[in-house]
Amino acid sequence: MVEINFDKGAGxxxxxxxxxxxxxxxxxxxxxxxxxxxxxxxxxxxxxSRSRKALWVKGESSGHFQNVREIRIDCDSDxxxxxxxxxxxxxxxxxxxxxxxxxxxGEELETIGEKVFDPEDVYKK
Length: 125
Known about the structure:
With 125 residues, this protein is mainly beta. It has a single domain, classed as Roll (Ubiquitin-like (UB roll)). A 4-stranded mixed β-sheet has the order 2-1-6-5. The longest helix is centred in the N-terminal third of the chain and has 10 residues.
């Protein structure tokens, strides 16, 4: 069994999500033991929502699931890297492919990504 050091992060570890093919960084989230086990069991990227304090399967609301193709663990066993197939073309809840769709330009943030979907259409409440 792979030993992940969840104690080091007070039970939550950063999980970097990267596109399997392009290697583009899509997002960062957090995993606990429960989300780690769920990811291993289902093959779907699953995280711990710090705001909702609940398990969160990426794509459960939007249909934009992340199918895990490979998992890497850093040298200290306290950071997880998920290489995924991004279903639906977008990882960001704001409609962009990557959550990292803005870059610092001087003292301003410049949008460098294109929207893949309209969040109001996807997250109808």
